[in-house]
Amino acid sequence: MDAAEAVTLLMSPAGRVDPYPVYELLRAHGPVVEVGPSFFVVTGHAEIDAFLRDPRTRVFDRPLRDQFTPGWQDSAAMVSLSRSVLRTDPPDHTRMRRLVAGAFTPRRIAALREVVTAQAGELADAMARRLRAGEPVDFVDQFAYPLPVGVICALLGVPAADRSLFRRWAGDLTGVLEPEISAEELAVADRGAAELGAYLFDLVAARHRAPADDLTTALVRAHDADGDRLTAEELLANLMVLLVAGFETTTNLLGNGLVTLLAHPRAAAALRSRAELAPAYVEELLRHDSPVQLTTRLTVAPVPYGGSTLPAGSWLLLLLGAGNRDPRTHPEPARFDPWRAQIQPLSFGGGPHYCLGAALARMEAQVAFPLLLRSFPELAVAGTPRRRARLTLRGYATLPVTLCDQSPPVDAGTPAGAATPRTP
Description:
With 424 residues, the protein is α+β, with helices and mostly antiparallel strands. Helices cover 51% and strands 9% of the residues. The protein has helices at residues 3-11, 13-17, 20-27, 45-53, 62-68, 76-82, 92-101, 106-131, 139-144, 146-156, 166-173, 183-209, 215-225, 232-262, 265-273, 278-288, 320-323, 358-375, and strands spanning 32-36, 39-42, 57-58, 137-138, 295-299, 303-305, 308-310, 315-318, 379-381, 386-387, 396-398, 400-403. Strand 1 and strand 2 (39-42) form a beta hairpin. 46% of the residues are buried.
């Protein structure tokens, strides 16, 4: 299969549900392959990492969209994201990121650990009551979604009663992050952007009237103090991205990770008894089945790599999920192995656009997985989980679980007597 055919397969429903075989088809053509005029697909770990950090590559910001995507400003979803840190480059990106980054310092993340632990415990207790009554539980509904959405909503000051609203809005809006989107899907994304934007507009108005100790108030004050630091449109756009990104990635990490752990019971048993291994496990779970599979860049000047050069104006499809399974960086990449000598997931990107909430997502997963394994040693997948039909954000729409009395099959993923996983 040639590279262009493989990309077509990757964008198909089957490719979105399981992209990993398609990544190997693409990898056979090299770590960087041209699949169309000025269109390159990148599967190599080192190459992706370098392109993400190179100042000659840019995200698709407003000027570039004006040049390459006529009519994009008719889309509420595209316009909203274009005003955020997600779709801007320096100097605007630097200015906005500096205002938001204070919510994600190591000290603040450490202070949130007790909150995350308490919320995870409450959710696990609620799951236990249903599971021990013989009911199957949808892990996404009952744990993987409410844990991170509760944390990010607490940071932003969103009332607990409103948190259930965001799952549909985020699911609709994030369709615009896909590399291909139909007119119907774009209309759904625009609806999600409009409804979420209206909610956040009201939240901002409430913080003008009654400031609180939350990130929304801090951003409102930044806007009020000096509109040049953060415009009203940027304020709403960045709140939207923070809210959506704050739980979408972590929800997918928790779902993907639980399925992987349940498929590797010996590895799960080690983590169950030794919670201090969680950092290395989470890094390997991020690498093995990344919650974010791709991102894009455009070169604005020639960019050398290896013995070649990408010309200016090249569109790069950076397949993070493929880079995570590059055998040059991670030998036997399809094997889940938290005992690897080094684990370097690309799942949160790199360079100036490295995910602001990466440390928070890692911490939530490091708390959640040992707790779940200790609370439910007999946990098993019930029925057939259903993947979301998305490529960029990879996760489960539904993940039914139950308690099983049978001993799980022995897996080959963890060698007997293996050394302690290394903490990255």
